[in-house]
């Protein structure tokens, strides 16, 4: 596999593989917990507003699942930060002055917010007032969003770096305005696109669980409610995501044109309007798209809003600065294809509602079950498109990936990569199995929550309200 590569190049490839593997595992858990935390806040808010026990049952049902997913997200995220010091120490030294404070802000705001209120959210339903518990749920949901805010800001700065100054030794230092760093040109588009993707991912999982149980019992009120809420989310938000994705693509064309060229499979420039390729086999060596199937001038229409507008191709980019087209081309199509499948599922559910058949169409329910994991596939495909499309740079146009890796030996990286693969599949495989086991049981009236667990923590001082002797405290 690594024939013809020198040892340092092999270490670089292995370091990239290791980071890609760990971040792929990590990304799926925050993508789920961001949306699920907001869904829990909605469920608890509806319970407080309507007083219907059904919403409380669903809250407790999904709270158990959230607690496991959140824990796996935290654990998998810790590993990634260590790689900045082990495999990417040169990158950390060069850009630490800019991204270090941003990542610290994520800990000081999002992590502290989540850690401060998570215990109340998980175990405080019977120990604090309803209003305080709802406030804790809102704070956890806000914390997940704030975490996404800072992490997306860091990654967006690497995509579209602004607001920095070059120091001695080629180090990136913050300029006079932190706002220019935080709110870099791609940040607003990527934040909206990522957060909506998290909401859709959660909606599809909730919808799949509801559909799974509807296939077994169409009369279950809890399954009906969660399926209905999820389908509303898919129907209303999927079109918004497509529009947000289009705006993000236009922003990428402005600031990272080579990435869009790779996404579109445009090896050659098209002076009279570029086609939209639906299918093709990229050949990076020959710089051509084999077996191409496309719509004439549609790419120019989408990207320039003019079918005859010229679009530059990779032939205008220096060979050493071109991203690997075959990965970006296909990961982009996987993401877009799943996005339109989400839209189709949402529209199908609207049709079922109009015919009063939302809970009576087994084919719709089976389709929802099949689409359950598709959100995770889409977010990973989107991440691959973004990160591989940025290559060969870590800081776009300024710092090359080959110049960012630590001076490490390939066998050491290979050993740690193998260890990560074994441990991740063992630990997170068991965690995922446990989540699926929780989902396999249908929600029931008077659903137990984490606070019913005998191992749940109690107050460290005094007597808990649930265990006060009759007559009150003496």
The shape, in one word, is: globular
Low-confidence runs: 454-474
Cα radius of gyration in angstroms = 24 Å
Helix and strand composition category: mainly alpha
User: What is the count of helical runs?
Assistant: 13
For the termini, the CA-CA separation is: 75 Å
Major sheet strand order: 1-2
Keywords: Cell membrane, Electron transport, Heme, Iron, Membrane, Metal-binding, Oxidoreductase, Transmembrane, Transmembrane helix, Transport
Subcellular location: Cell inner membrane; Cell membrane
GO molecular function, one term: metal ion binding
EC number: 1.10.3.-
Entry summary:
This protein is mainly alpha-helical. 66% of the residues lie in helices and 6% in strands.
How would the blueprint of this fold be written?
Blueprint: H1 7-50, H2 53-86, H3 89-123, H4 130-159, E1 164-166, E2 172-174, H5 178-182, H6 187-214, H7 221-255, H8 257-264, E3 276-283, E4 288-295, H9 298-304, H10 325-354, H11 362-371, H12 374-390, E5 393-395, E6 399-400, H13 410-440
Antiparallel strand pairs: 1-2, 3-4, 5-6
Helix pairs in contact: 1-2, 1-4, 1-6, 1-12, 1-13, 2-3, 2-13, 3-4, 4-6, 6-7, 6-11, 6-12, 7-8, 7-10, 8-10, 8-12, 10-11, 10-12
């Amino acid at each position: 596999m690594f024939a013809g590569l020198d040892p340092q190049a092999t270490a670089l490839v292995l370091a990239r593989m290791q980071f890609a593997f760990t971040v792929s595992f990590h990304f799926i858990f925050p993508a789920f917990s961001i949306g699920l935390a907001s869904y829990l806040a909605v469920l608890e808010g509806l319970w407080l507003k309507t007083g219907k026990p059904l919403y409380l049952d669903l809250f407790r049902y999904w709270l158990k699942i959230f607690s496991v997913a959140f824990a796996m997200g935290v654990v998998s995220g810790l590993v990634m930060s260590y790689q900045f010091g082990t495999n990417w120490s040169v990158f950390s030294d060069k850009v630490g002055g800019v991204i270090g404070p941003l990542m610290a802000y994520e800990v000081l705001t999002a992590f502290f917010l989540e850690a401060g209120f998570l215990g109340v959210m998980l175990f405080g339903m019977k120990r604090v007032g309803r209003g305080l518990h709802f406030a804790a749920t809102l704070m956890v949901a806000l914390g997940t969003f704030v975490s996404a805010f800072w992490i997306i800001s860091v990654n967006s700065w690497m995509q579209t770096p602004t607001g920095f100054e070059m120091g001695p030794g080629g180090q990136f230092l913050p300029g006079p305005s932190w706002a220019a760093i935080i709110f870099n040109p791609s940040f607003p588009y990527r934040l909206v696109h990522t957060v909506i993707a998290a909401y859709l991912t959660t909606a599809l999982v909730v919808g799949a669980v509801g559909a799974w149980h509807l296939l077994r019992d169409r009369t279950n009120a809890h399954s009906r409610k969660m399926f209905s809420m999820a389908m509303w989310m898919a129907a209303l938000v999927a079109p918004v995501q497509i529009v947000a994705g289009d705006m993000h693509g236009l922003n990428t064309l402005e600031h990272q044109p080579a990435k869009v060229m790779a996404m579109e499979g445009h090896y050659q420039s098209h002076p009279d309007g570029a086609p939209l390729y639906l299918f093709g086999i990229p050949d990076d060596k020959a710089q051509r798209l084999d077996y191409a199937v496309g719509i004439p001038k549609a790419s120019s229409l989408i990207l320039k809003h003019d079918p005859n507008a010229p679009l530059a191709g990779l032939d205008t980019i220096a060979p050493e600065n071109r991203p690997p087209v075959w990965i970006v081309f296909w990961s982009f199509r996987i993401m877009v294809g799943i996005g339109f499948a989400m839209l189709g599922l949402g529209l199908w559910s609207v049709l079922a509602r109009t015919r009063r058949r939302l809970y009576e169409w087994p084919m719709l329910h089976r389709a929802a079950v099949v689409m359950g994991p598709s959100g995770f596939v889409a977010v990973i495909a989107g991440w691959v498109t973004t990160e591989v499309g940025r290559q060969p740079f870590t800081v776009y146009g300024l710092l090359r990936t080959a110049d960012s890796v630590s001076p490490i030996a390939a066998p050491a990286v290979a050993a740690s990569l193998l260890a990560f693969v074994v441990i991740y599949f063992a630990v997170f495989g068991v965690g995922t199995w446990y989540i699926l086991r929780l989902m396999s049981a249908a929600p029931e009236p008077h659903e137990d929550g984490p606070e019913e667990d005998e191992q749940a923590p109690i107050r460290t001082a005094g007597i808990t309200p649930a265990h006060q002797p009759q007559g009150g405290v003496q």
